[in-house]
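Sorry, explain these tokens?

***
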Amino acid sequence: MTTQLDRATADRFAALTLGHVGREYPNVLLHVLTAPEDAQTPSQLHPAFYGSFDWHSCVHGWWQLLRLLRRHPDLAAAADIRARADATFTPDKIAGEIAYVGRPASAGFERPYGWAWLLALHDEAARHPAPWAATIEPLARLIAARFHAFLPRLTYPMRVGTHFNTGFALTLAHDWAARHDPDLQALIAATAQRWHAGDRDCQAWEPGGDEFLSPALTVALLMTRVLDTAAFRRWFDAFLPRIAAGEPATLFTPAIVSDRSDGKIAHLDGLNLSRAWCWRTIAATLGPDHPVAGRAEQAARDHLAASLPHLGDDYMGEHWLATFALLALEP
């Protein structure tokens, strides 16, 4: 099993994702109707991000394609990715997305998961010699403004394993803000400290039956972004004080996926892949001399082995899992 993003793996991921970013149906709409005329098709509502079963999966599918293109410019699908990106990231299509997000009824649309992935897409697009980032930027700035307004009002973090998880979303948003919005970066750091600086002895009662994120490990992931190495080691040792002994064992045990045609149960493949990313990031931050580092790296390998072979088993996973596999395999 590969544990690196080699060329063959990148080609496989790109082929999977190109098969769904422009596939309109089946489609799940997170849509508030305020009048009869609001009943429209996905492509009418979302001219750029109508594919991939849902809006956020289309957004992060595009993030994945641009990331693969940058990591491996010689991809077999490189020309196709560029041509389709040129056709997708146009001023009129992004204006349509801005109009939708700007609706009063869309104030909470895709909060915070889709918000974070849109920022990640903009950041990735900015690393390419193409006009894509400039076109996407007004939508990214609108979403950044939403984060600025929302975080001071959010009294408590959302420690869940699904789209409302704040640890995962703020990690992606922090990475964008570090390069594009220093004020938002500072706000995210302060918010993470407010919520999590005093977290101790996490019980890690997970996974839940439809989770694709670890409530425990995504908190640690966020703290890798806002603490220096020494401070993170101290915080982590208090957050999971028995982790060097392999407890809680649930964090080291890959989830069992009983039915990959069930969209909610298939989330558990995503949990395995996102945990692998978290464990690799935590191990790198702790450093090789920390007593958890070896266990963390092995846990990442075990979680990858459980789900990496199943990315295309069913469309319920195919439309999104390769993004999480990419996170897990990146250096």
Notes: The chain has two domains: 1-153, 196-331.
